[in-house]
Amino acid sequence: MKVCEIFASIQGESSYVGLPCVFVRITGCNLRCVYCDTTYAYEEGIKMSVDEVIDDVKIYGIKLIEITGGEPLMQKDVLSLIERLLDDGFTVLVETNGTVSIKDVDKRAIVIIDIKTPKSGMFGEMDLLNLKYLKASDELKFVVIDREDYEWVKDFIRDYGLADKCKILLAPAYGMLAPESLSKWIIDDRLPVRLNLQMHKYIYGPDKRGV
């Protein structure tokens, strides 16, 4: 598989926020979201075997692993990597953009689907069949650009009956929507979601890589 980078940092998103985590960023993405902050992952990377990735991951001595991208599920060897890491006792988070089926992802992994809103410009590429494969331990993430996006997310959660299906995360698009605004909307509506603030950007700044 082609791997963009492997590094250890503080998990900045999801319900695992704040925990030490090793990130395996897989090269390649089939989307071009308007707010993308990892455009370097479109092409950059080196070829690595599953064994080589696992050897690199084990150097850090951290049991929480996130497989991310780009879009990691575009590369078939990633399914084997996930399974091997789980067999070795790691907790594995798989962050996917929701355009590739999660049906064959090992059920022991925690899948985090980044549901693209209309304002991302990429909602039309979503594979909504993925919603039927969600487990209670999985998570859905929405990056919200403005109030119109937020209202769409509310309707989406209601229309697909997601409130009781899995954990739901709402993130303000960094530099585009004030966290204070999104927080107020969530509180006012008593929306059963978790605010997701990309902690790593507040710790290290928005442009630093490998964090």
Description of the molecule:
This protein has 211 residues and is α/β, with parallel strands linked by helices. The longest helix has 13 residues, at 147-159. Helix content is 24%, strand content 23%. The protein has a nine-stranded mixed β-sheet with strand order 3-1-2-4-5-6-7-8-9, covered by helices on one side.
Give a quick rundown of the structure:
The chain has 211 residues and is an alpha/beta fold.
Features:
single chain; 211 residues; alpha/beta; 9-stranded mixed sheet; 5 helices; globular
- In round numbers, the mean pLDDT is 92
Shape: globular
Instruction: Give the beta-strand count.
Output: 9
Estimate what percentage of residues fall within beta strands. 15-25%
What is the structural class? alpha/beta
**Order of helices and strands, N to C?**
EEEHEHEEEHEHEH
Low-pLDDT segments: none
As a percent range, the share of helical residues equals 10-25%
Could you give the order of strands across the largest sheet?
Answer: 3-1-2-4-5-6-7-8-9
What is the terminal-to-terminal distance? Answer: 22 Å
State the major sheet. Answer: 9 strands, mixed
Please work out how many helical segments DSSP would assign: 5
Query: What radius of gyration results from the CA coordinates?
Result: 16 Å
